[in-house]
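The protein record quoted for completeness.
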Amino acid sequence: VPKGLPGWSSAEKEHLGEELSDVLLYLVRLADICGVDLGEAALRKVKKNGLKYPVERCKGSSKKYTQLANVVNEEEFRVDTAIEEYL
């Protein structure tokens, strides 16, 4: 999706905003019911992704972390162990 949605009318952008707001409100309510702290979960996920996908190795690539240079296979990399130790 191009940034800023060029070619979209103001009405289309407003409608999209309403739909995205519905999704956000549903997500917040679901997290509350499930006892999930969304802020904490998001921060943990950002840290986890930062370890899995360091900028110097991943910028401009859509490869999974197990396909990046210096990683032979998922078992050898064991990113989840490293992440838990870091967090």
Q: What stands out?
A: Confidence is low (pLDDT under 50) at residues 71-76. Residues 37-87 form one domain. The longest helix spans residues 10-34. The two ends are 33 Å apart (CA to CA).
